[in-house]
Every structure is written in structure tokens, then in C-alpha cells.
User: Fold TetR family transcriptional regulator from Rhodococcus coprophilus.
Amino acid sequence: MTQAGPGRPRLREPRRPGATARAEILDAAAELFTTRGFASTSTRLIADAVGIRQASLYNHFATKNDILLALLEGTVEPTIEFDANLDADQPAAVRLCALAWFDTAQLCAHRWNLGALYLLPEVRAEQFGRFRAERDELAERYRDLATAIVGPRDPRAELPFRLVESAIASRADNELVDAQLPEVLATASLEVLNVGDIAAVKRRARALVIGVPGI
Amino acid sequence: MTQAGPGRPRLREPRRPGATARAEILDAAAELFTTRGFASTSTRLIADAVGIRQASLYNHFATKNDILLALLEGTVEPTIEFDANLDADQPAAVRLCALAWFDTAQLCAHRWNLGALYLLPEVRAEQFGRFRAERDELAERYRDLATAIVGPRDPRAELPFRLVESAIASRADNELVDAQLPEVLATASLEVLNVGDIAAVKRRARALVIGVPGI
Assistant:
């Protein structure tokens, strides 16, 4: 019989960060997908990196695509939730600044640079439609807030979302990303829309972002 | 005996855009790498898409990596050359604007969205060092010009290069990229650095960019 300590019984010492086997699988897959490549990573390799059998992995995820889907959704869902809880009475510029600030911080906070997987050809498959719809929803939030500032049919309304996602390329290019990057990109998101009195907007946005879990 | 018309004799009708077999191979590989994935594409598949034998492909490129290297270098070398020919007497803001304008235009002009391959884990291998050095050189040109505007140790100096490369994500997300994108991103590159009298800077930059092949 296996002796397990108090709490959730474990048959093995965890090898990876994560409180559950599911979290360990996601961490191992995130590392392999971003450093070795999605196509070149098998579920066997992921199971080996966690130190479990492939059959145990299948208790948590039916396919490798399901693992990728969970990882990708994890990059947008916290920000969608943050946005949904923003006070709608705040001016559009304040909400946009807070959104860009939070979003950049969470893109930078994940242990692996998962945004680098957005451009995988595999992600265009139907199975990833739910993730693509969520990311589109997020892009539309940025666009709506920006349009409230610059007016309709202005191509600059696309820029804040693009600036925030540039954190992905920054992470790919630099071992250590500048700790100021969330603030820098949130500020740039206002500059490209010619927002006035950016210092005041940032003060109010900062108050919405500080204390939020994940920042 | 095979009858060949005037000019370079061809044993087959070309299937792909490109004046030479080498160009056809690059076009087929660019399509397959960006739509199917690099790891999932073999040299056999590329040869099939061109309509040549694998052995003929090896006359032009020794390995699949060599094809990728040629494609990646093709995304930065025209811009490095454009920059090298810019009049050094022009103010930094004008040169930066022209550089961003030209670079975005060339990233958008290529038939396939090759920038989407920058984040491939495979590109971190030693064999791609030459490409990475060229892209770093280009990033440094942007940084130097931006630093001449905002001063040293200002994190905003990174933003123009990031804005220009956001054209890659725009292409990935939209069938048709806004024809104004080069101008929009060139303008945004100035806005994020708080450049004054942007209209005048853009007029001078436009004169440097118009008439350049590839724009």
C-alpha cells in the first residue's frame, strides 16, 4: 500500500509547478510547446516531463489539441473577466488604460510565453474556434473603447490591442522583460489615440489595476 | 528531346510565382511553412508543390533549414538596405518615419506572412544566428533613431519596432490588411515618442519612401 501524507494523496513527488496534476500537465505542455514546438511535442513527451503515464494524462485531456486550447484560453480569459468587472462609469480612456495595463501584465506574468502560440497554423483549425472567438471578443473591447475616443472608422482604433500583444515579441526577444512594460504599453495605447492629460488618466487607471490579483 | 522555347529552357510549366526554380521553391515553402507549419512540412512536400523532384530541390537548398533561413532573411534585408541608403542629414524623426513606413509596407507586401515564423522555437537554433543578428541590427536602427528623439534609457525607444512588427499579427488576423497600415504604423511610431509637428515629418518621410521599389 502507498503511504500518503495529509491532504490530497499523491503517489509521486510533483516535478512541476502546479497544485494539481492538471496544472502540472499544463505547465509541462506550455514549456514544450514554446521551446520545442507544438508539432514536435507528443502527449507521451508531456507525460514524461510530468512524470506520469500517458494513460493518466488522458484522464485530464483527451488530445494534445485540448491541452493547447486550455493554454490559449488561459491567456485571454483573465483579461476578459477583468474587463467585465471594470466600472462602466469610468471614462473610456481610463478603462482602456486599465485594460492594456492588466492585459500586458498578465501576458508577461505567465511562466511561459504562450502568446507565441497564437500564430501557429494549427490554431486556425475549427477546434480552436472558441479560443479565437474569445480573443476576437477581447480585441473588440479594445476597439470599442478606442472608438469611443477617436470616433468611428479610424484605423488607430486597432493600435492599443496590437501594442499590448507586442509584449509577446518583447518576451521572445529578451530573457528579462522590462518590469515597466505594462505601464509603458498602457501609456503608448493612449498616446497613439492622442488622449489628452495622460497623467490624470493613468492615475485613475492605476487605481483600477492595483490590488487586482495577477498584477 | 525536349523542346524549349527562347530564353532559359524549362522542362516543365512553372506552377508557382517566381522567375526561377529557386524563387518557386521559396514561394512553395513560404506557403507551406505559414499554412501547414514548419515542423510538419518536409522538403518532399515542398518539391511536390513546385512540381520538381526532391533531388532537384537539393540543387538549390541543402536543407529545409536553409530554405527557412533564406525566407527569414528576405523579411529584413530589404529594410536594412533601405535604411542604409537613407540620407543621414535628415532629422531622426523623418528617418524613423520613413523606416517604419517602408518596413511595414514590405512586411505587408510579401505574398505569405513570413513574420509569423519569427516566433518558431526552431529559429532559436545556432543555424539561424545570421538572421537573428540581422533582425537585431534592424531593431537597433529603430532604437537609435528613437533614442535620438526621446533621449537615452527611455523604454519608449523600443516601441516603433514593435509597432511595425504588429503588422504581422494584423495580417494573421485579417484576410485583407488595411492599405493604410504602413502610414498608420509610421505615424503611431512618432506619436508614441511625442514627436512634434508630425504632419511635417510625415511629408518629408513620404518623399523618401515614394518611388522606392517595393512600396
Remarks:
- The CA atoms of residues 80 and 138 of chain B lie 6 Å apart.
